Amino acid sequence: MSSSSEKPRRITTHVLQEMKNSGEKISMLTAYDYSLARILDRAGIDVVLVGDSASNVMAGFETTIPITLDAMIYHAGSVVRAVERALVVVDMPFGSYQGNSKEALNSAIRIMKETGAHAVKLEGGQQILESVSRILSAGIPVMGHLGLTPQSIHKFGTYVVRAKVQEEAERLVEDAHLLEQAGCFSIVLEKIPASLGLQVTRELKIPIVGIGAGKFVDGQVLVLHDMLGITQDFSPRFLRRYLNLSQEIGEAVTKYIADIKNNSFPSDKEQY
Ligand code: KIV
After folding, report:
1. What residue spans define the domains of the chain?
2. Which of 81, 96, 131, 246 has the fewest CB atoms lying closer than 10 Å?
């Protein structure tokens, strides 16, 4: 029997696999701080991603490249302290895992030890397989990320839809299989044709979570600040905005300023 004071069932990588097997869709959002992560967790989100999109939405950089491992650890620790139910996945930042699998393992160990997170996410396929395998060999769950991989933006040159041509689509499918065979528990597919999202989702046993990868994948992820309408200058086709918080917050602050200026805040009841 369950009571309202009982802790909710924790989402693990095994639970995500069960969700795929039973056809239940997986919900995932980014978070970077304690207060918002707590709201997402209490609302019932399955996976909280401490994305390196923190580089854009928290720090104001143009790309995800500048964010450091120390900064990711700071954000991840804040999120982990808020979350009781969701699986917390942390993005390994650019430069912390590419090209040197020992450094990759050290970076992943720092994330796990210093934040208490449950898994890490890395961008790329075949070219980072050694790092993925080494991290997995330490018992750290790994989520892959294929398609548009923002850490490689200077190689791609643009944020357009990936894998539209057959050769790139075939490479993506191969990479997805390699990541599954290596032992990744899930893969994020970003900004690819829906038909390719469907193909990968059908061919792989592990859960596939999409962002701009169509509706046939096993789950969806969005950047929290985009879906809440805090960011305004980013409107890809895949983004559904659930709020217009930028406007609402702006209006609230305007009202607050006016209340101070015209001496209506604080009122008699709001003072000691
Ligand atoms: O950093 C991030 O927010 C991400 C999502 C776009 C999947 O990797």
Report:
1. 13-241, 244-272
2. 81
Q: 49 CA to middle of ligand 1, Å?
A: 7
Alpha helices in the chain (DSSP H): 13-22, 34-43, 54-57, 69-82, 101-115, 129-137, 153-156, 166-182, 194-203, 224-227, 245-261
Q: Which atom of ligand 1 is nearest to the CA of 64?
A: 1
The pLDDT of residue 8 is 75
Q: How confident is the model at residue 5 (pLDDT cuts 50, 70, 90)?
A: low
d(CA 233, CA 211): 18
Confidence of residue 2 (pLDDT cuts 50, 70, 90): very low
Query: Which of 170, 174, 190, 251 is labelled catalytic?
Result: 190
Ligand 1 close to Cβ of residue 211 (< 6 A): yes
CATH number of 13-241: 3.20.20.60
**Count of beta carbons in the 10 Å neighbourhood of residue 181:** 11
Contact of 246 with 229, CB cutoff 8 Å: yes
Check whether 63 has a pLDDT greater than 80: yes
Ligand 1 site, residue 53, Cβ cutoff 6 A: yes
Ligand 1 within 6 A of CB of 51: yes
Q: What is the pTM of this model?
A: 0.96
Q: Report yes or no: 8 and 43 within 8 Å, Cβ to Cβ.
A: no
Pocket of ligand 1 contains residue 52 by CB under 6 Å? yes
